[in-house]
Specification:
The protein is α/β, with parallel strands linked by helices. 31% of the residues lie in helices and 24% in strands. Bound molecules: guanosine-5'-triphosphate and zinc ion. Guanosine-5'-triphosphate binds next to helix 5.
């Protein structure tokens, strides 16, 4: 039996689905991992053997991870598509900024995908322009009207991708149009509850042409474990103006002679984004207090 290199696309009750040369092999993790307090996770590149006579597969080694998320548990992600809808649910700029911070902290490239773009309005357009100016890639798209699906296909080429965003923003619909077949049941938006049904649970990669894509429920509920100074640096659009801050430790809140606050006043930084920053800064500081108490 020769050792093969594969990629874990799914984990169900201790059974790993490992993809190798377009074939899926069901494998168990070698007992040794447990002793080492280590376990393979979805997204891992692994070395495995497969006995075709007994249909028995064993994962022997986990190759070094590029990055890893704990909730949802998934490794080696290249890009995260932040799916945020124009309506139902309405665009949540605070959540976008929070997700960007979480994604960049994990060393993953965020791409902002605005779903249901046939309902785009001028106000939202202005807000989005702000992200583009800050250097983020933004793709408005519509699964129903088939707008810019090709652009999304292009950015996910050869990448390992996670989809994140609230319930009912249209993640399953996007996966469906990308896959051009019904992979998942699409839930109806419940106007009464203001959210769709939660149907997606564990992480699983679907192969769409040469991309691997996973829906990641629960991403938005992560806490931010980050230093306030790092938070300020993750806001790319602040960088240009932070050079004019009097103090190089400036958090752009109460400090005098702050280049960022000046840029906000002059309309060079979107006030919503600055407001979100202050809210995140508060959250980070409060989180730190809680962690220190533990
Ligand atoms: N107008 C419009 N509605 C859409 C579009 N894409 C999806 N929807 C609707 O949005 C609702 C939610 O879509 P889903 O694809 O189930 O959303 P989801 O993000 O997967 O939701 P969860 O499974 O709860 O996480 C459904 O009623 C879809 O018909 C679109 O491009 N335009
Ligand atoms: Zn400042």
């Amino acid at each position: 039996m020769s050792m093969e290199k594969g990629f874990i696309i799914k984990l169900v009750a201790g059974d790993y689905s490992v993809i190798c040369n377009h074939q899926i092999f069901l494998c168990k993790a070698r007992g040794l991992f447990r002793n080492q307090n280590q376990s393979p996770m979805v997204g891992d590149e692994v070395l495995f053997t497969y006995d075709k006579t007994t249909n028995h597969g064993v994962i022997h080694q986990i190759l070094p991870r590029k990055n890893q998320l704990l909730r949802p548990p998934v490794a080696n992600i290249d890009i995260a598509l932040i799916v945020m809808s124009t309506i139902e649910p309405s665009f949540d700029a605070y959540l976008v900024d929070k997700l960007i911070v979480q994604i960049e902290m994990a060393n993953i490239t965020p791409i902002l995908c605005i779903s249901k773009c046939e309902h785009m309005n001028q106000e939202l357009q202005n807000l989005i322009a702000n992200y583009q100016q800050a250097g983020y890639q933004v793709i408005p798209f519509s699964a129903h009207k088939q707008i810019h699906i090709d652009k999304i296909k292009e950015v996910i080429q050869d990448q390992k991708v996670v989809l994140c965003g609230q319930s009912a923003v249209g993640k399953s619909s996007l996966i469906n149009v990308l896959a051009q077949e019904q992979k998942k049941e699409i839930g109806n938006f419940s106007a009464k509850l203001g959210r769709g049904k939660h149907q997606t649970r564990e992480v699983e990669f679907l192969q769409i042409e040469n991309a691997f894509i996973a829906d990641t429920p629960g991403f938005s509920r992560l806490e931010l474990n980050i230093e306030p100074a790092s938070l300020a640096r993750i806001f790319k659009d602040f960088d240009l103006y932070a050079k004019d801050c009097k103090y190089n430790t400036c958090l752009h809140k109460d400090e005098p002679q702050c280049g960022v606050k000046k840029a906000v006043q002059e309309g060079k930084i979107h006030p919503q984004r600055y407001k979100n920053y202050l809210q995140l800064l508060q959250e980070v500081k409060e989180g730190k207090k809680v962690w220190r108490k533990k």
